[in-house]
Amino acid sequence: MTTRDEYVEKLKAQLDQWNAQMAQWEAKSRQAQAEVKSGYEQQLAQLRSQQEQAMYQMKLLQGASADAWQDLARGAESAWKSMQDAFNKARSHFEKS
Q1: What is the distance between the alpha carbons of residues 19 and 33, in angstroms, rounded to a whole number?
Q2: In terms of C-beta density within 10 A (0-12 exposed, 13-18 middle, 19 or more buried), how is residue 82 classed?
Q3: Which of 18, 5, 74 is nearest to 44 (CA)?
Q4: Read out DSSP for 16-55?
Q5: Cα dihedral angle (91, 57, 41, 39), rounded to 10 degrees?
Q6: What does the radius of gyration of the chain's CA atoms come to, in whole angstroms?
Q7: How many CA atoms are closer than 13 Å to the CA of 45, on its beta-carbon side?
Q8: In sequence order, which residues have a C-beta less than 8 Å from that of residue 13 and are 6 or more positions away?
Q9: I need a labelling partner for 25 at 20 to 30 A (CA). Which of 18, 71, 77, 84 fits?
Q10: Where are the domains of the chain?
Q11: For the whole prediction, is pTM greater than 0.90?
């Protein structure tokens, strides 16, 4: 089992990857024509919502005691799964456009 700090670092690294990809998609959205732009913006809004939840769970983990962090990790895993699903959906939307 990993330590809390290792786990949080893993989560931070994944968030950094998602943030970099989202920045590229936001740039693409700004350049898109009006009919496509609405779909891009909707996908990005969903991602931001999931991202906020994932970041919240990560902050809870960072502040958790040594005994409690493993219980909180289950909530973080759920938030991360939701973020990954939203990210994959957005990726397919942006790559087909």
Answers
A1: 23
A2: middle
A3: 18
A4: HHHHHHHHHHHHHHHHS-HHHHHHHHHHHHHHHHHHHHHH
A5: 50
A6: 15
A7: 6
A8: none
A9: 77
A10: 4-96
A11: no
Q: How many residues does the chain have?
A: 97
Tokens of 2: 């990993």
- In angstroms, the CA 90 to CA 97 distance is 11
Q: The tokens of 89 are what?
A: 């959906």
- Placement of tokens 């913006």 in the chain: 41
For each of the chain's 97 residues, which pLDDT tens digit applies? 578 888 889 889 998 998 899 888 888 877 777 667 777 788 888 888 888 888 888 888 888 887 787 778 888 888 888 888 888 888 887 777 6
